[in-house]
Give the backbone structure.
Amino acid sequence: MRCLLPIVLPFVAVALCIAQAPAQTQQGPKEIHSFELNAIDKSVDPCTDFFQYACGNWMKQNPIPSDQSSWGRFDELFQNNQFILRDILEKAGTGLNRDANTQKIGDFYASCMDESAIEKKGLTALKPQLDKIAALKNKSELPVFLADMHKNGFRSFFEFGSQPDFKNAQIVIAETDQAGLGLPERDYYFKDDPKSKELREKYVQHVTNMFVLAGDSKEKAAAKAKAVMALETALAKASMDITSRRDPQKVYHKMTVKELAALSPSFDWNRYIKGVPAPQFDALNVAVPEFVKGFNGVIESTSLDDIKAYLQWHTIHYSHQLLPKKFVDENFDFYGKTLTGQAEIQPRWKRCVNLVDGDLGEALGKAYVDVAFPPAAKERMLDMVHNLEKALNSDIKDLPWMTETTKKQALIKLDAIANKIGYPDKWRDYSSVTIDRNDLIGNDTRATAFEVHRQLQKIGKPTDKTEWGMTPPTVNAYYNPLENNINFPAGILQPPFFDMKADEAINYGGIGAVIGHEATHGFDDEGRQFNAEGNLKDWWTEADAKAFEQNAQCFVDEYGNFSPIDDVKLNGKLTLGENTADNGGLRIALMALNDAMKNTKTEQGYTPGQRVFLGFAQVWCENVRPEAARMYAQVDPHSPGRFRVNGVLSNMPEFQKAYGCKQGQPMVRVPQCRVW
């Protein structure tokens, strides 16, 4: 899928990690263990650097594959899932008696793998879209044109979609938000350091190269790329920065369509909304009003030819993976090699697996669940979730810094959290999506249009809290504050996170900490602003809110001093929610395990307490390329693995007791940070 037009707010996507896609040397799934004894580097003092102690030998034994920007245990699991999905898709592409979903996923995958057909078609499949851009005669045609562009998944200028109303989360409303940039984040357009300037130059050259591949002369391509950069810079200037966007109060501005139109009089929003088309509505959330004003300024001040160049670029850019190899390679050269340091592109089959998962995720996911996630695993997970929730309940009751008034509301919210494990109760119906074995771009366009339409039709209807925001094979998890639920796809409920064969200490250090992490998101700096019903409503006393902020500042200061590469520091405010969840999550998992630990014997030379911390740390073992480390520090709300481990454990007296760490050693932080 080129993009999902419906908006996913940054604070909603409080997921566990950013999963990277894995390596090409392995030929099939391998057995992954939740606890790797040979991963431990015993030459390292666990009280000096526990990440290095727990993962040192793993890091030596697992160099980053050439087709990756980083490699960690998430990636091992992600790769295993990809092998399973490839087997499903290859089998789905053959046979005479295939059901509808099997035909769709099998033929979609086959159309993606048919490189010769893609090479023959060239840009032919994009020609109708590019011709429409060329035919634009004046700016007044833009609303209808962008509506058509957006409903087919081509992302440009802004986003328009649906989501629950922040102040009445039981109902879905329309929303528009900032978008339209080719670089990862708005600050990439303005930083003055040499590396940032060099990156912008390389980006302009990349855009130039793509225009040349599409048939422009070098001179014309360079001029168009310069125009694209100028237009995107203007949009970036009007955009809200990534850290500010974490505050839900800053991205909620409910307005009528008339009020929206007043922000950008040069763009006819009524014609756009009618063209998408969206159901009739009275009000919508304008996430960033200043961006709408800036967008209006761009439309007024930019020539039609330069706007056309921008639209052409985004059409080609968002379709690159569906085009001939020369476009794919050029895209990889910038977004892979330059941005993340990745040496080689992934093999085509992996890219095609990812495409099918993105476009027909629940059709593919249903087949995955049948293979990889037995009912017994779901039952055991539910037991662990309930144990973690009981522990969080006790933790809230015993908090020394929170008053009884706020505790009462916190417990009401905790009790209302819904748990979704593995996969949806009701599978998505793709019967209206036509998939042609010989039409890759058409398949992607139709699947994208189906999803855009499905999302827009939610406007004005009750929020469906049973729906999932991730596909079943996804190696990730998330908490949704607007629905007050935690979600664990089947893809992450595998070793090293969750192992039906592992002892409780390892499982609670792995998936237990993940469960605690997601539940704690309901009470981090963003999640705490939503009540039990998912509404943006202040349920804190003034004194408790102040105490929370004081305790959270400790995490901002701690992680803001971590440096993943050279002189680059982590953004303590950007990563605050994830760091709060990491610290609270493991603490809650340890509390939940206390009774079980009393009856658990020492294994492989490690006590139950030590194994909990090893199970937690080894989930985050990873190697990262310098380029990727630099990028993640700017755009990723999660801290790197080393700091997720050492940052959390240095705050835990339980860890120091388990390993005999003394005051003054690096793994004993002073002062120790704690919120939950």
The chain has three domains: 36-61+375-418+499-676, 71-122+345-372+428-460, 126-322.
